[in-house]
Design brief:
Helix content is 63%, strand content 5%. It is mainly alpha-helical and 321 residues long.
């Protein structure tokens, strides 16, 4: 009788006697997988939602930051519009600037339209991103307008200074030798060279005051000279009048007689002569002294002896000589 070789059955390790076999574990694995898949699905949805919420939140923050930047730019631009420098530039007269085009540029800069504020009211990331881009673009535009406005204001101020310097230089050249104090012109020249508007203003006033003082002094000197000349002329006229009066007085007191056609007339010592007679002394035909009696000089022996020309046989009067 042959003996059969038998292989003893494997003895499971200690403690594993109750573990089910592979066939017995399959339902469990499937159940665990199902649960895992469910958990992963739920976790994925929640994770996506969390991720998307995070993205929207970040987009909203970016939009809010862009809007804040836009608001700051708009406020800065409005403050620049109301600044004293802008107001003064806008009030500048065209005659006060050297280049009138600067005023035109300033008006255009001031007239730039201020854009409306952007709102971050979108519910999704794409909408918020669009709002952010719009706010950024608006902020850049407002900042550019502000930069243009500042440049326009500076251009007007520079043109005003150019005109001030040019006018001051013209005043300096025009007042040579026409001011009372030449130092005022020297100060004006220094201020013009430095392009200092305040110093130029003070120097211009000093030059004008000095010019006015010299004009006043010159006018007073001229008036005084004219008065002195008038006084001298009046004195000369009075002297000439006095001399004429003296001459007339002398002529009335003593004058020479005149002779014409065998007649003569004149006066001397207050006595008058006429024709051939005289009031006192002798006369050609008759003479009287203190009376009206006629006296015939031809009957006077002295006359016949000394004045009668033998050729005057008729006894008529012949002139002496």
């Amino acid at each position: 009788m042959e003996e059969k070789n038998t292989v003893p059955a494997a003895i499971p390790p200690a403690g594993t006697e109750d573990i089910p076999t592979r066939k017995d574990r399959r339902p469990i694995i499937i159940a665990v997988a199902a649960v895992t898949a469910t958990v992963l699905a739920v976790g994925g949805v929640c994770g996506y939602r969390a991720y998307e919420h995070r993205r929207v939140s970040l987009a909203r923050q970016a939009c809010a930051s862009a809007v804040a930047d836009q608001s700051k730019a708009v406020k800065s631009y409005k403050a620049l519009l109301g600044a004293d420098a802008t107001t003064a530039a806008l009030k500048t007269d065209v005659k006060a600037v050297k280049d009138a085009k600067t005023l035109d540029a300033l008006k255009r800069a001031v007239g730039a339209e201020t854009p409306a504020m952007v709102k971050c009211d979108a519910s999704d990331k794409n909408g918020l991103d669009e709002a952010t881009a719009k706010a950024d673009k608006t902020a850049r535009s407002v900042k550019a307008d502000a930069k243009t406005l500042r440049a326009a204001v500076r251009a007007v101020e520079s043109s005003k200074l150019d005109k001030t310097v040019a006018d001051a230089d013209g005043l300096y050249r025009a007042t040579e030798g026409k001011v009372q104090d030449e130092k005022t012109r020297e100060n004006l020249a220094k201020a013009v060279k430095a392009r200092d508007a305040d110093a130029i203003g003070k120097a211009v006033k000093a030059v004008n005051d000095s010019k006015a003082a010299k004009e006043k002094a010159d006018a007073e000197a001229k008036a005084k000279a004219e008065q002195e000349a008038a006084a001298q002329a009046a004195a000369a006229a009075q002297q000439a009048q006095q001399q004429a009066q003296a001459q007339r007085s002398y002529s009335s007191g003593s004058s020479n007689g005149s002779y014409s056609s065998n007649r003569w007339a004149g006066s001397t010592g207050g006595q008058s002569y006429s024709g051939g007679s005289q009031s006192s002394g002798f006369q050609g035909g008759s003479t009287s002294s203190g009376g009206s009696d006629d006296y015939d000089i031809t009957q006077d022996p002295f006359f016949n002896q000394h004045t009668t020309n033998p050729s005057c046989a008729s006894g008529g009067f012949c002139p002496i000589g």
